[in-house]
Design brief:
Distance between the termini: 34 Å
Radius of gyration: 22 Å
Helix content: 40-55%
Largest sheet: 8 strands, mixed
Strand order of the largest sheet: 3-2-1-4-7-6-8-5
Length: about 350
């Protein structure tokens, strides 16, 4: 059997009122051979029944009755798929009519690009347009294209800004880099973009390729204490390996202005410069980043070759480390953390943060 050009992946969950529109938007794509893999993740509404009503040779439906998590279901569908390219769509969103044909053209003509993304038009529960100027995060997906190094800088400093359900990605990217981590609920896509940017170019179209539905209070990015804590913890986990595999050239192009020794003359200097980046100012993530920096600097100080370079080139020794350990408040009491969170919410800062940095998920 000849493999289709594209495999479209949809994990559904409790989106009975919206899933038919999402499926129709895929089936109406023209000019591209595709298969459409759908799996329900244990919906408690009529989502499975709505999906089962569609009779189309391109659809393969897996009506699971147990909820296991979006990443598990998505990864299973990727494993079952056969296309050269893979597209993902949320079960409450809808694509524009020529989305696949347009992005297939981009990847066919640009073999160095690993994945193509687009911008989003926001809609409400009834499908009515939401003016993005009325949303604090309305322009988050309106990104200019960058080199891989500058994408890494953007991700490190500001966070996630790519619209996951607009993606068209080469199958080999998942084969080489792995799929989504189900340990991450808020940021599994952000983790993937970091891995992707280390190896491939990324493309973001200036076209709006999806109707992105806003359902306040009904997804993983809702502004709750639990989601806020989880988001920060996931950033902590992701940050620990952020610079793994990042090359000297990446640092020179993307981070030159905040490097300490800018020519990075040795492998030891490269490791040290990566660790020192966690001590740079960051509006949202300075505290977890500095904890990562302390962990990495502790390891480097325990390595004789790195210890010598740290002392000779940077003036960093155990006393420097001890001073930094007194500055980073790792074990802040829970009540104090809760009070600070409440104040941030009152000021509106964390509200914006959660939307910008989180992925909609079930």
């Amino acid at each position: 059997m000849i493999a289709p050009k594209v495999s479209v992946i949809m994990a559904t969950y409790n989106h009975g009122p919206f899933v038919a529109e999402a499926i129709d938007s895929v089936l109406s794509q023209q000019g591209v051979e595709f298969e459409f893999l759908i799996a329900d993740d244990g919906s408690s509404d009529n989502t499975r029944d709505v999906v089962a009503e569609f009779q189309d040779r391109r659809i393969r439906f897996f009506p699971n009755k147990v909820n296991r998590g979006a990443c598990i279901v998505t990864n299973e569908l990727i494993e079952k798929s056969r296309g050269e390219y893979i597209a993902l769509i949320n079960s409450d969103d809808a694509w524009v009519k020529d989305k696949l044909r347009y992005q297939v053209g981009i990847l066919d003509e640009n073999p160095s690009i690993g994945a193509s993304f687009g911008r989003a038009a926001f809609v409400d529960r009834e499908g009515q347009p939401i003016d993005k100027r009325t949303l604090s995060y309305g322009a988050v997906f309106d990104q200019e294209n960058r080199s891989s190094a500058l994408w890494l800088r953007r991700f490190f400093v500001t966070g996630n800004c790519l619209c996951h359900p607009t993606i068209l990605i080469r199958r080999r990217c998942y084969e080489e880099l792995g799929t989504y981590s189900n340990r991450l609920r808020q940021l599994p896509d952000f983790d993937m973009w970091i891995r992707l940017a280390k190896r491939y170019e990324l493309n973001v179209s200036d076209r709006e390729l999806i109707k992105f539905r806003i359902l306040p209070g009904e997804n993983a990015s809702s502004q709750t204490m639990v989601n806020g804590i989880r988001t920060m913890n996931e950033h902590f986990l992701i940050a620990d390996t952020f610079f793994d595999g990042v090359t000297r050239d990446h640092l020179l192009e993307g981070f030159l202005d905040i490097l300490t020794i800018k020519d990075i003359p040795t492998a030891q200097h490269l490791d040290i410069e990566k660790a020192l980046l966690f001590f740079a100012y960051n509006q949202w993530l300075e505290r977890p980043y500095k904890v990562i920096g302390l962990l990495q600097m502790s390891r480097l100080l325990s390595s004789p070759p790195h210890h010598k370079v740290l002392l000779d080139s940077y003036g960093i020794d155990d006393r420097w480390f001890q001073r930094e350990m007194g500055e980073v408040d790792v074990l802040r009491p829970k009540m104090a953390a809760a009070a600070q969170y409440s104040k941030s919410v009152a000021q509106g800062a964390l509200r914006k943060f959660l939307v910008l940095w989180s992925r909609r998920s079930h």
